Predict the structure of Exostosin GT47 domain-containing protein.
Amino acid sequence: MKFHAVISEFCVAKPLKNKWRNQSRRINCSKYLCFLLMFSIVLLIFLRHLFFFSIDARPSSHHHSKKKIHSLVGESSSQDSCLGRYIYIHDLPMRFNQDLLTNCQVLTRSIDKTSMCEYVQNSGFGPRILSSEASGLWNSNWFWTNQFMLEVIFHDRMKKYKCLTNDSLVASAIFVPYYAGLDLRRYLWGFNTSMRDSSGFDLINWLKQKPQWKTMWGKDHFLVSSRIARDFRRKSDRKSDWGNNMK
Ligand SMILES: *[C@@H]1O[C@H](CO)[C@@H](O)[C@H](O)[C@H]1NC(C)=O
Ligand SMILES: *[C@@H]1O[C@H](CO)[C@@H](O)[C@H](O)[C@H]1NC(C)=O
């Protein structure tokens, strides 16, 4: 009320200079200016509140969520370097990964010069190149690595990641260690589309049973594939079309 009175007083006390002869027009104009002034003041107050509110609110809510995560992990330290970087690895049935390596002969095509079993060793890096085998360019840090082994290499690296967690609620992302490309390699040539798609459906059905899936409907899940995207994006269900339907 007091504020409003000050505004009216200000407006009445300082009318516009006598530029217009028409009195009613002058009053209209000063009313208009008065409204503008009041509106700007209210806007300023509003913005100021908004500004201070956001400055005050940010650290406290951040602090709160930090605390919540710490109590979940069971840590009291406030400097958890893994915060926001935790990863949960799904414990997939062996048919989705390890079995493919154990039965590596099924990955080898008849036209392959080298058995895929050679490349499985050294966590997917393949056999070490001995310096006697090649020119002096190669020293003992080089391997004969097959291009389709990225899935194996990445899975092995992921197992050694320092911010792993067994509590998927704390995890920022969920890794699905499925060897999609190696699995598909078995059926890419000469098999009907239902054979090529079957492992993908099998995986999805397995994942959908897990509580981790229901949290974000899989949007926080990731997997690594060593094959190009086109191999997983078949255009139609005609047998002659390339790849499977995993997308
Ligand atoms: C998760 O649980 C398994 C078995 O219960 C254990 O071997 C592993 O070390 C645990 N991992 C972490 C990151 O706590
Ligand atoms: C696809 O091939 C498999 C064996 O290779 C066979 O058992 C299956 O019936 C075939 N499916 C269709 C839809 O033709």
Q: What stands out?
A: Residues 1-20, 41-47, 49-71 have pLDDT under 50 and may be disordered. The pocket of 2-acetamido-2-deoxy-beta-D-glucopyranose (ligand 2) is lined by residues 191-192, 194-195 (CB under 6 Å). The longest strand covers residues 87-89.
